[in-house]
């Protein structure tokens, strides 16, 4: 099984910005945690981060053409603004996608409450910090296992 782990704008700044919201674990530590946990689960992951919407769309589409089994995505600020990313997720169905947020977007400013991506994802995990990525991988493993 192979998953893409996709991170949107400013996620590379976790551990630096707004530590009271995003925690103190830096981006490299988050990626190390994901990679370590994926090895324990016997899955391969490829991790991406971009501050550019089009690049994120390209990566999502790439998952389809490379027969990736599932995607964990933290669209970050694009969650609330990007129809293009939502459409890319919709276009790659039936690849399952889980949306992750380090913070609980429902507990933050009103403009962060809406996700354009959520309707096309099998689940949204929010407010669990970096552990949310691990939870998302487990959701994908279960969903893929149920299909087989």
Automatic annotation (TrEMBL):
Annotated positions binding substrate: 74, 80, 87, 102-103, 112
GO biological process, any: amino acid biosynthetic process
Metabolic or biological pathway: Metabolic intermediate biosynthesis; chorismate biosynthesis; chorismate from D-erythrose 4-phosphate and phosphoenolpyruvate: step 3/7
Pfam families for the chain: DHquinase_II (PF01220)
Record CDD domains: DHQase_II (cd00466)
Site (Transition state stabilizer): 17
Catalysed reactions, as listed in the record: 3-dehydroquinate = 3-dehydroshikimate + H2O
EC number assigned by the record: 4.2.1.10
GO molecular function: 3-dehydroquinate dehydratase activity
Class of enzymatic activity (EC top level): lyase
Cross-referenced Gene3D superfamilies: Dehydroquinase, class II (3.40.50.9100)
Record keywords, A-Z: Amino-acid biosynthesis, Aromatic amino acid biosynthesis, Lyase
Active site per database record: 22 (proton acceptor), 101 (proton donor)
Family (UniProt): Belongs to the type-II 3-dehydroquinase family.
Subunit-level organization: Homododecamer.
Role summary: Catalyzes a trans-dehydration via an enolate intermediate.
HAMAP family with a match to the protein in the record: AroQ
PANTHER family reported for this sequence: CATABOLIC 3-DEHYDROQUINASE
Name the record gives this protein: 3-dehydroquinate dehydratase
UniProt organism field: Anaerorhabdus furcosa
Gene name of this polypeptide: aroQ
């Amino acid at each position: 099984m192979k998953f893409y782990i996709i991170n949107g704008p400013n996620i590379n700044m976790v551990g630096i910005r707004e530590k009271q919201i995003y925690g103190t674990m830096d981006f490299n530590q988050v990626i190390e945690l994901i990679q370590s946990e994926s090895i324990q689960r016997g899955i391969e992951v490829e991790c991406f981060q971009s501050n550019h919407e089009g690049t994120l769309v390209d990566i999502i589409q790439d998952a389809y053409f490379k027969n990736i089994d599932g995607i964990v995505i933290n669209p970050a600020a694009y969650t609330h603004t990007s129809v293009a990313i939502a459409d890319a997720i919709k276009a790659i169905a039936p690849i399952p996608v889980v949306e992750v947020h380090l913070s609980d977007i429902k507990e933050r400013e009103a403009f962060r409450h809406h996700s354009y991506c959520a309707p096309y994802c099998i689940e949204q995990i929010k407010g669990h910090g970096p552990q949310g990525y691990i939870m998302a991988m487990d959701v994908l493993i279960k969903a893929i296992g149920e299909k087989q």
